[in-house]
Structures are given as C-alpha cells and as structure tokens.
Design brief:
The structure is a homodimer of 106-residue chains.
Chain A: H1 3-6, E1 15-22, E2 35-42, H2 51-61, E3 74-79, E4 83-86, E5 92-95, E6 100-105
Antiparallel strand pairs in A: 1-2, 3-6, 4-5
Chain lengths: 106, 106
Amino acid sequence: AGGRAKRARSQKPCSLKELEVTVTDLGLGYESEETVLFKYCTGTCEAAAKHYDKTLKNMRKNKMIKRGKDRPCCRPLSYDDDVSFLDNYHEYHTLKELSAKECGCV
Amino acid sequence: AGGRAKRARSQKPCSLKELEVTVTDLGLGYESEETVLFKYCTGTCEAAAKHYDKTLKNMRKNKMIKRGKDRPCCRPLSYDDDVSFLDNYHEYHTLKELSAKECGCV
C-alpha cells in the first residue's frame, strides 16, 4: 500500500458518482449542517481519444509542442438545478452549477 | 533557465494555436512529406471554474473524494474538416477529427 501501488490504474470509464455531504463539507465557505447530494464526474476517457489527441501526444513527446491537453477529460456535460440552503446564521443562499447532471469525455 | 523556472506559470487563456507540420510529424504512422496545418487548444481555464470545480477541489483535498477532474479543460469544441493526403507509397488516406476548429474551457 505504498507509493507504488497507487500508480496502478484500474479506473472505470467516465461516469457520474454521488455523495451526500453537508454544505459545510463543500468547502465553499458556508456553514450549514443541511445536506446536499453532490454529483461529480470521474473515470477514464482513453477510449474517446481522437486523431487530435494522438497527434498532440506525439508532438509533445517530440517537443514540437509544449502544452496542450492530449487526452479527453471526464467532465460534466450539464449541471443540476441550483441548490438552496439556510446557513447556521439563518441566511438563505443559492448555488449555481454545483453538481453534475450528466458526464462525458470532452 | 533550470527546472525551477519551468514551474512559473504565465500561460494565456485557452485559445487556438496552429503549426504547419508534415504528415510524418503527426506521428500517426503515415509516411508523407505533405504538410498539414495542425490546430490545437492550449491555455488556462482557471477563470472558468464553477462551484462544481471548487467543491471537487476541496473534497479531494479533504480526502472525501479520490478522483475527479477539478478544473475545466482547454479542449476543442469542434473539429476541422477531414484531412486527406497521399503517403510516400502513393496511397490516399483521410483523417477525421485531426485538427481543432474552436477551443473552449469544458
């Protein structure tokens, strides 16, 4: 269970996961024990690599290009509805684009 | 100009760059001296971080979540037309989705 074991990759394809957390746990600076269902995108996108990605990877390897994201990202394609909550000071807040609705390799 | 200088980040916002290269340079396994204009996306997407990204970043920091892309990626929003070329053996090939047409933070 050292640093070496961590490097093994057995990730599943890009998909939506969810976790119930308190608003405080979101780490956005609000204090509230109200819970929200936080949905996020995680997983691999290797199967989605296009000629574009393969070329960028080769050209970075050959130092013809310095930077550029050479593999698709597992990201939200759309976001859930706004989330509203009362904080511990009885103030009402609304957060936009907090939680993913749908994921994809982009 | 050692390893340290490399770490300084002064990247521009996500945008399209281009480079004229030979088909051989694409590294896709084709041998041809024909040139193509390879257009790719590069640059930062920090300004595009949403509540989603900030939350994911905090939750990864606090080990509540293991993985998940916590910042937007600078990626093609659309791709250029197919690219056709003759290789050194006089065979004709067409490559789809080789070059970016438009970039964005996704």
